[in-house]
Amino acid sequence: MEILDTVSLKPYNTFGIEQYARHFTKAASVEELKEALLWAKKKEQPTLIIGGGSNILLTGDYNGLVIKNELQGYQVVSDDDDFVTIKVAAGEIWHQFVLHCLKHQYAGVENLALIPGCVGASPMQNIGAYGVEIKEVFCELTAVHRLDHTTKVFSKEECSFGYRESVFKNSYKDQFVITDVTYRLQKKPVFHIEYGAIRQELDRLNVTELSINAIAQAVINIRSSKLPDPAEIGNAGSFFKNPSVEQSQYLSLKKAWPDMMAYENADGTMKLAAGWLIEHAGLKGYRKGDAGIHEKQALVLVNYGNASGRELLEVCNLVTDTVFRKYGVQLHPEVNVI
């Protein structure tokens, strides 16, 4: 393990924000991860764990040790006629894992194609898209405690999954480092094409026989058309969660804005489309200096070049304030502000 001093984090966050880590290292094994955590404990340094850097907004230099999780590898835990269970190292790129599943015809994650980031972030965020969430294929995960360096296995129930939430964003926030995640995938697929955008794209592709590959391609096409490539323009994908409101508030909003988009949750509340709220608040395409809101997708904050994290945070606050004043609905960032 090599500890470097004063390292730029620009290559390690998809916003392309130029901030510095006081100390920086990469962990390619659980042993190196524990060694780095022990070093930080001895030096009384806080730690920040990063994977793909696709879900963070850096608003200042990090005065501690940044550890880049580079754990790699796949392991088939069990395999029968109906299911395959695979343990995946946390540093693996999420989309590469999806492609691996498509290659072997393992179903369950095709709707989650092209989501940026690493495998370790998937349960932390309970990532989801187009009617599917990671909790539906999640089996268990392994994590290392940051202070005593013990290893713990978390079951699905212990993760307390919610909408873009888990125990690791709440009561266990900053207490554990996820080292691997185990998924249970289907060999006899159940297709999820409830979202109109997927149906339309499948029709456009002239798909006559459904398959997980066709659905994944449709999702890839949709995401590519709506979301900017971080290699071309700095962003972290969808910046805000879709807010949920009570039926009574939704009916009141629907009366004022008849074309407002919403989906009913299992608990009877209504999930509003944050992108619709932002766009109809007049903020789509907003720009101040190099910080702004994408012209094609109002959910996405973008760095047009040399925006600072604080400038992007100002745009975030403008969005939340404007949406609340207009609709009485509070938006919350999906991205972790650091």
UniProtKB/TrEMBL annotation:
Catalytic activity line of the entry: UDP-N-acetyl-alpha-D-muramate + NADP(+) = UDP-N-acetyl-3-O-(1-carboxyvinyl)-alpha-D-glucosamine + NADPH + H(+)
> Which pathway does the UniProt entry assign to this protein?
Cell wall biogenesis; peptidoglycan biosynthesis
Kindly list the places in or outside the cell where this protein is found, as annotated in its UniProt entry.
Answer: Cytoplasm
Cofactor(s) required, per the database record: FAD
Coiled coil segments of this chain: none
**A single GO cellular-component term on record:** cytosol
NCBIfam families in the record: murB, PRK00046.1, PRK13903.1
Q: What does this protein do?
A: Cell wall formation.
UniProt protein name: UDP-N-acetylenolpyruvoylglucosamine reductase
Q: Which organism is it from?
A: Niabella ginsenosidivorans
